[in-house]
Amino acid sequence: MKDAPIMSAMSVPISPSSSASSASPGRSTPGSVADVSAPVPSSKPSLGERLGQWFGRGAGKTGGPGGGPKDDKGDKGDKGDGKVAPVKLSPRAESALRRQLTQCLSARQTDSAANEAAREFMARYGAASPEEQLALLTVVADICASDGNALADAGKDGDGASAKRAASGLAGALGSARVRFLKRFNALPDGLPFLVRWRSDMLHHRAALPGLAALEEDLGSLFSTWFDVGLLELHPITWDSPASLLEKLMRYEAVHEISSWADLRNRLDSDRRCYAFFHPRMPREPLIFVEVAFVPDMAADVHSLLDEKAPLEDLRRVRWAIFYSISNTQPGLRGVSFGNFLLKRVIDELQVDFPKLRNFATLSPIPGFNDWLKQLSAQALAEALGPKRMKSLAQETSLVSGVSGAQMMTWLQSSPERKSVQALQRSLGEGLAAHYLARETVRGQPRDPVARFHLGNGARVERINWHADLSKKGAKQSCGMMVNYLYEPDELDANLQRLIDGEPALGRAVSRLL
Fold first, then answer.
1. What would the CATH number be for the domain defined by 369-513?
2. Per-residue confidence at 175, pLDDT binned at 50, 70, 90?
3. Are 57 and 220 in contact (CB under 8 A)?
4. Domain limits, the chain
5. Please, what is the average pLDDT of the chain?
6. What one-character DSSP code corresponds to residue 289?
7. Pick from 84-88, 210-214, 460-464: least confident
8. DSSP H or E stretch at residue 320
9. For residue 417, is pLDDT > 50?
10. Is 364 a catalytic residue?
């Protein structure tokens, strides 16, 4: 039976009738939860954007649960193309800003006037509109670009070894100035959260403001130290957690949207766990979190896991821990990887709480499958399917000969009535998914971003699940398919070595599909 919800943790008003209601059996949520009159944030980033945080910076690395939430400021100032137009600073205001930033760049770390200037800039930027923030960033980028031009001029004017030494010395000086500039902000109260948000803006505007590149890269390098996994704290998130934290959980969820407080209550029930990494200087802001379900067998579809009416699992007989959602929350921390440490830490925690628990797996999306499939020519599709499946495909009258990948994707998303066609759909879909996960690579790494993450952690591709996610998002990403990655603690290092050798670890069921 469900525990009665802790209303003091929610800190939001409820109706009198709901406060008197009692818990009901199974997963049906008490009326007091359903009637909570708190807003459910609705701005949701795309999975591609959120996955990008886990697998490096820049375009082409939009993989893994990353990308973060949308800006709270909304769409104010956006043009039709999604770009923000900067406001025009007056010559006097721009000149004052340049003097302020130059002081922050050049002064000693202990210079109190420069520290006060940094504090004023941080407050001004935080209170500014998106258009004003872009204007401020433009000046920052111009100052950094001017430094870069000075470095280039040093190389032109000098000759031979002396020019190289001059350029090298200038590069070191400029780099030290930028680092000192960033450390000055970090030393301020709330400076670290500001820098995380600031880098998110830098990444967003970097293409339009190339002068930001050096500063953004320096900040990313500093974050690798400041957010070292040894400094992070692992904490559970429960129904008793503060309402502000629960709202962030709902807002940041990137894989399976949390639709209501009742949905959230289900995900934090007694047979579930949720863990997050926090930084000591950002104690109310989860950096990355994972949702865990305890089930009797390896999960084959997400709908069963998210069913609010399903009975609670008996934890005395728990056999499987399923990681069914992993979300990175801070776009400004893109390229700072701590997701692999999170899963390993969580496995250790679960083994302490449940000493007999030995089976750990994910139920993961295949976010890049459809994008890959629809780009295949008829010849490439035939090669991916293999002769045996192509022979079966030739017997299906609803498909023309020489079918392309885009046509195959449309067919896999259809709902045929005949069971024989349904079986063929499943056979071809699972075979293509297995090929995509096990054989398709980019620069020697798995093409799929989620596969790249889990295989890079030492997991193995255990099973392809047909029609595991029948939501619009699941159909759009992977024709409704999902995959289980199996985590065997004693095999993680060996599996990682197999990936390095170009042969990712595969379960028997997946190997048979190839």
1. 3.40.630.150
2. low
3. yes
4. 91-227, 229-357, 369-513
5. 81
6. E
7. 84-88
8. strand 320-328
9. yes
10. yes
Residue-level pLDDT at 165: 45
Alpha-carbon dihedral 470, 261, 322, 513, rounded to 10 degrees: 10
In whole angstroms, what is the distance from residue 65 CA to residue 449 CA?
Answer: 9
Catalytic site includes residue 454: yes
DSSP β-ladder status, 320-328 and 441-442: unpaired
Of 204, 256, 279, 454, catalytic: 454
Looking at residue 159, its pLDDT comes to 53
Class of residue 116 by CB neighbours under 10 A (exposed 0-12, middle 13-18, buried 19+) = middle
| Phi, psi for 370 (deg, rounded to 5) | -65, -40
pLDDT at 27: 57
**Phi, psi torsion values for 56, nearest 5 degrees:** 105, 180
Q: Of all helices (H) and strands (E), which one includes residue 4?
A: none
3-state SS of 20-31 is CCCCCCCCCCCH
Length in residues, the chain: 514
Q: Are strands 359-362 and 320-328 parallel, antiparallel or unpaired?
A: parallel
CA of 480: how far to CAs of 82, 163, 370, 474, in Å? 30, 59, 10, 5
CB atoms within 10 A of CB 169: 12
Q: What angle do CA 83, 88, 93 make, to 5 degrees?
A: 135
Topology (CATH level 3) of domain 229-357: Aminopeptidase (3.40.630)
pLDDT, mean of residues 276-281 = 96
- Quick one: 91-227 is in which CATH superfamily? Malonyl-CoA decarboxylase, oligemerization domain (1.20.140.90)
Q: Which residue has the tokens 């420069």?
A: 114
Candidates 468, 487, 488; CA nearest to 478 is 468
Return the bridge partners of 442, or none. 445
- Burial of residue 355, with CB atoms counted within 10 A of its CB: 0-12 exposed, 13-18 middle, 19 or more buried: exposed
DSSP secondary structure letter of residue 464: E
Q: Which residues pair with 275 in a beta bridge?
A: 236, 290
Per-residue pLDDT of 144-173, as tens digits, reads: 766 444 433 444 444 545 444 443 444 444
Asked whether the beta carbons of 338 and 227 are under 8 A apart, the reply is yes
Beta strands in 117-217 (DSSP E): none
Q: Do residues 92 and 38 make contact, with C-beta atoms less than 8 angstroms apart?
A: no
* CA atoms within a 13 Å half-sphere pointing along the CA-CB vector of 122: 25
Separation of alpha carbons 465 and 363, rounded Å: 9
Q: Which of 32, 200, 337, 364 is catalytic?
A: 364
Indicate the residue type of 157: D
Share of the chain above pLDDT 90, in %: 66
Q: Give the C-alpha separation, 398 to 387, whole Å.
A: 19
Residues 243, 13: Cα–Cα separation, whole Å: 12
- Position 441, amino acid: T
SS3 113: helix
Same fold? 91-227, 369-513: no
